[in-house]
Amino acid sequence: MTYRQEVLLARRAAAAGIATVRLHYRGTGNSDDLPAGSVTVPTMAADARAALAWLRETTGDGPVGFVGVRFGALVAAAVAAEHPGAPLALWEPVVSGARYYREMFRAVKVASVRSGSADPERGGLLRELHEHGWVEAMAQRVDLDSYRDAAARDVAAELGAHPRPILLVGAGKELPRECRRVRASWTDAGHSVDELLVPQRYGWWFLRDPNDWAPIENDPETEELIGGTADWLTRTLGAADGD
Amino acid sequence: METETKAGRQVRHDRSLTKTAAEKPMFLPAGPERIFAILSRPEGEATGLGVISIHTRNNENTAHRNRLGVRMTRALAARGVHGLRFDLHGTGDSTGILAPGVDGQPAADVLAAVDCLRQHGASRIALIGACYSAMLALAVAPQIPDLAGLHLVSPPIASLRREGGVNTYHAPLRQVLRHSMSRRSLRLLASEPRYAAWLAGRARERLRRTLSARSTAPEPASALQAPPDRALRVLRDLAERRVQLRLLFGENDPVLADLQAARTGPLGHWLNSLEQTLEIVVAPGGGHVLFTSLAGQDFCVDSVLAWVDAMLQSDRR
Q1: Cβ–Cβ of B294/A136 closer than 8 Å?
Q2: Measured on CA atoms in the order B248, B253, B257, B262, is the torsion positive or negative?
């Protein structure tokens, strides 16, 4: 749902002199397929490493930074952990894999109530996932193996202890509670944590109303999101280059 | 193919794995913009047919919802068909800011994709569109002399006056209240402040829409759709040209209901004259554009492949 914003950020960063690579993990988007259930944080991190290797080969060595969006925060943190001091920007990060799926399954429940298709006799999606090995959520297949892998992870553990600049981006008046918690623990551990809050119509998951057809480029919050993140990357990568 | 019955419908969940090896990503010039496109080259002998998948515009990209665009174009390539998926300007990886309507830049985007397919050896072109992009495909069709087919998912050809999009079904208030007042929902509201904020935001937005619908003139021209008489005239001309026309709707799609209702209204004579030449397929239990469930996505892919097979068969004859 944030694809266009990610494209705009990459182009803004490139215009500021930062070579940027975006990727579709294997098993998603336009990349090669993977067998059902085999897309996990380790496979996604391996893909991100391959993209980074290509970037290095193409543009040479230099300071590197990472941006993770929602679930991608777990992946960005895992790869950033291998690059001590590398700046890390996270848009509405999924702080815990288990919580991410819990929210997703709740949203499915809400949608089924809204559409009138809710079946009070039906058990929870989590139980169904364990019974059948996969479940349909938000028109996508969620596999038990992918779920188990993600549910055991949280962003703080993936990132590790090396101090680094971190930008936490949230929508609304304050960061979500779980982000505030991780922010506090990162600050205590010596990371330099900045915060960027952008106004968002519904302030949850960066989702826009599907009936809102206005180009996002015209939204003032898009400029705050893109400009704010690009400026932070330029500043922190510039500082890293100076070191 | 492994399938499983889920909610009364067959859901496919173990497909053969596809690769990017035979695909070519590129940026196509389309007026002042550069359009990102991916060509799936035909495997084996090329049939000469090229099919373009146009995404539904809002928040989408070449891969489309749950990789529907990828599945379709790779399956087409396996049949010897050139499959092209692309981002309309202002979406996905293309340049620009999305313009409203179906003429001008959106039409130029489609025509750039058509040119690309011709350059890669396709001698006949077919278009796949859904909702907005179905209307875009219809608007552009008269400009494609070698058009062989149109596969339109939920084309709102009789829904010009539908307000606020077509995803307008809401459960009755009593039912929503019963569910939202359940112990579980109340616990969620208390424990998750963002859930409450989100619900309040939706309620505000719904109120705003209701009030604005009451205060505005009853017939605002929709920026999304071509006038229905134009769409129907194009359909009739295409039918005369023996273009393979298939319209696919979900059984519960409000756009299908509009079309059925229009048969008894002023558009009736147009629609009835088209009845013999249009193939209308209805997916049981499906909603608008069908992409909102795995079963709907499978139905859509199967429908596209059946439509392509019919075109190839007709070529052989």
Answers
A1: yes
A2: negative
Token output for B185: 């929902």
Cβ–Cβ of B170/A218 closer than 8 Å?
no
| CA separation for the pair A141, A135 (Å, rounded) | 6
Our CA-based measurement puts residue B170 at a distance from the nearest CA of chain A, in whole angstroms, of 6
User: Along chain B (317 residues), what's the average pLDDT of each consecutive run of 10 residues?
Assistant: 46 67 94 97 94 86 89 95 96 92 94 98 97 93 96 85 45 58 66 67 69 53 50 86 93 88 75 78 87 90 96 85
Within 10 A of A82 (CB to CB), how many other CB atoms are there?
Answer: 12
C-alpha–C-alpha distance, residues B146 and B86, integer Å: 20
Q: Residue A134 is nearest to which of B13, B20, B297, comparing CB atoms?
A: B13
For B293, the closest chain A residue by CA position comes to A139
Helix (H) / strand (E) element for B27: namely strand B23-30
CA angle B225, B229, B230 (to 5 degrees): 65
Q: How far is A204 from chain B (nearest CA, A)?
A: 7
pLDDT digits (tens, 9 = 90+) for A107-146: 888 777 766 666 655 668 888 999 999 999 988 899 999 9
The tokens 């052989």 sit on which residue? B316
- CA distance linking residue B252 with residue B249, whole number of Å: 8
CB atoms within 10 A of CB B45: 7
Those residues with Cβ within 8 angstroms of residue A178's Cβ, 6 or more apart along the chain or in another chain: A95, A96, A99
C-alpha to C-alpha distance for A104 and A65, rounded to whole angstroms: 29
Contact (CB, 8 A) for B85 and B73? yes
Is 0.90 surpassed by the pTM of this model? no
- Rounded Cα distance between B268 and B246, Å, is 19
Chain B residue with minimum CA distance to A8 = B93
- Pairing type for strands A165-171 and A192-198 reads parallel
Three-state SS at B40: strand
- Amino acid at site A81: A
Contact (Cβ atoms closer than 8 angstroms) between residue A121 and residue A13: no
| Strand spans (E) along chain A | 66-69, 88-91, 134-137, 140-143, 165-171, 192-198
- Rounded to a whole number of angstroms, the distance from the CA of A220 to the nearest CA of chain B is 14
Q: In what order do the strands lie in the sheet with B244-250?
A: B23-30, B33-40, B82-86, B49-54, B124-130, B147-153, B244-250, B279-283
